[in-house]
Amino acid sequence: MATTQKGFEDRAHQVADEGREIQREVEAKEKRSFRSDQDDEPPPQTGARQYPVPPLPGKHLEKPGLEAELTLKPMYDAPFYKGSEKLKDKVALVTGADSGIGRAVAVLFAREGCDVAIAYLEEEADAKETQAAVEQEGRRAILIPGDVADPKYAEAAVARTVKELGGLDILVNNAAFQEHAKAIEDLSYEHFDRTLKTNLYGYFNLAKAAIPHLKPGSAIINTGSVTGIEGSKELLDYSMTKGGIHAFTRSLAGSLIKKGVRVNCVAPGPVWTPLNPADREGEKLRQFGAKTPMKRPAQPEEIAPAFVFLASPQTSSYITGEILPIIGGY
What we know:
- 39% of the residues lie in helices and 11% in strands.
- The protein is an alpha/beta fold.
């Protein structure tokens, strides 16, 4: 295992290369075809501003996926969200915070008065944009690249957060690996192993490293998924890990409540982040989210307020062990 920052970064590049190789293997095995079955009713708009609807740009990304390369930029800045010091002077460590949901969470945490440690694999340009957005909110941000599947990295990331930001109050486990496979026969052991290592080991590693530093009133928030509730036939391994994250949340919540630490989970449906353009391409990507009752994917800024709610002892002091689905309707 890597034990130095240089080692963590080298390992992170290796893991990213492994993800790209898995992606190439999957894409070489299949021929894609998709026919939209959407009706003629326009997708409803229910938010404070207009959100993009399918068809979406079908640009495919190489893993791990850079938000900067997306034609349609995810909406994360939540201009209508006004902070009210719900997380004043707290410190959060957010994994996968370079882009997508993680970036939106980091920004809203900062808007609520929180300093943020931004953990990510190798997407430095995206991570720096998140850092700049946090600093624009008047809070501190540090960048910690590495592989969450490495327990030594998890320990080092927590140690850096505590040393450089002065403590740790909130852990957001959000980093994920996702790559579809049409059938279990197409799911290689390497592919299966990478998904479990990132999505399950990563959450365990960060929680184990963080818990000694958490005080009464602290919170851990895990990112689950609707696939962990409903399953997904082409995301067998990913769905398995997300169901495991839901069970991990409830089990850890029971274990930590005596310490005054709450543990909850947000389980999103389809969200427009680099994760899916780095998995799908073509018509399936263009119609991403179209099968939800809202007929579109969420934008990250629509998911992030739930993390603020579950992180703040002002708003969720009596909530622990919950899985909160945000899936665009039933």
